[in-house]
């Protein structure tokens, strides 16, 4: 099953007319959403450099946790890293 541009436009026009009560451009992006205070606070901090020891350790820890989901992909990453590539 696939969706053509023509079918999408027709369905979107019907959807907007029946649900939005208007015609013309409509955003299908979700939102607005409420951003939790802890997320806003995290964005106020300076970003962590991808070259810092903290980031590298955190990335490796995250990668190890993801290994169960995608062992072949993670093993390629660690092989390349350990080979110095």
Structure description:
The protein is an all-alpha fold and 85 residues long. It has a domain of 35 residues. 59% of the residues lie in helices and 0% in strands. The protein contains four helices and no strands.
User: Poorly predicted ranges (pLDDT <50, ≥5 residues)?
Assistant: none
Number of strands: 0
% residues in beta strands? under 5%
Cα-to-Cα separation, first versus last residue: 41 Å
Helical proportion?
Answer: 55-70%
What average pLDDT do the residues reach? 78
N-to-C order of helices and strands: HHHH
Largest sheet: none
The global form is: elongated
Radius of gyration: 22 Å
Structural class: mainly alpha
Q: List the total number of helices.
A: 4
Descriptive tags:
single chain, 85 residues, mainly alpha
Short description, anyone?
The chain is mainly alpha-helical. The protein has four helices and no strands. It is 59% helix and 0% strand.
Task: Give me the secondary-structure topology.
Layout: H1 5-20, H2 37-44, H3 53-66, H4 71-82
């Amino acid at each position: 099953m696939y969706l053509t541009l023509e079918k999408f436009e027709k369905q979107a026009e019907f959807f907007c007319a029946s649900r939005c009560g208007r015609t013309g451009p409509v955003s299908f992006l979700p939102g607005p959403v409420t951003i939790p205070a802890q997320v806003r606070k995290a964005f106020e901090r300076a970003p962590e450099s991808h070259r810092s020891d903290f980031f590298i350790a955190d990335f490796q820890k995250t990668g190890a946790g993801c290994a169960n989901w995608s062992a072949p992909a993670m093993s390629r990453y660690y092989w390349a890293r350990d080979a110095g590539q």
